[in-house]
Design brief:
alpha+beta; elongated
């Protein structure tokens, strides 16, 4: 169960949820694929198809290939964990943003305490649907969250819920 859903108060319901955009995975995927495909797979292929290699060198090459393949998978998994460990939601009472898995940072701001939400999108971000959200509460400091999927929709949902407040 997600952090947001497990921490709802009675009578509170989730209106909108988003997460980090898939673009945060791009670097992890590139490095992971480079480790998996180029050195790892090629070294393993080379080691298996050479006939003049003694068994010690063969085992070293296979071990090196295995380390590279495992490293590639670990890099990709780290990206997945990073993306999935961030939750952002708008409820009918508050804005909830949680980042991190082992060490966690949460911001839970009542809707009537939200002063403004700033959205910044680069040209590429506008084309792909991601941007930076800065949540500013009354008397608080700005909290930026980068590479958020559908930032304008998030801001719109917060504004709609603020309008519904008594």
């Amino acid at each position: 169960m997600s952090y947001v859903h497990s921490n709802l108060v009675p009578g509170e319901k989730v209106i909108y949820e988003t997460r980090l955009h898939w673009i945060v995975m791009l670097g992890h995927m590139a490095v992971g694929c480079l480790l998996l495909a180029l050195p790892g797979a090629l070294l393993l292929y080379y080691a298996r198809n050479q006939s003049g290699i003694d068994s010690t060198e063969l085992h070293l090459m296979e071990g090196g290939a295995a380390i590279l393949l495992i490293s590639g998978l670990v890099v990709i998994l780290a990206g997945l964990v990073r993306r999935n460990a961030t939750e952002m939601a708008v409820t009918n009472r508050r804005v909830v943003i949680k980042t991190g898995l082992a060490s966690r940072k949460t911001i839970e701001m009542l809707l009537n305490k939200v002063e403004s939400i700033e959205v910044s999108e680069t040209t590429v971000g506008r084309m792909l649907g991601y941007g930076t959200i800065v949540v500013i509460g009354t008397g608080g400091t700005p909290e930026p969250f980068h590479k958020v999927a559908h930032p304008l929709q998030f801001r719109s949902q917060v504004q709609q819920q603020i309008e519904k407040l008594p």
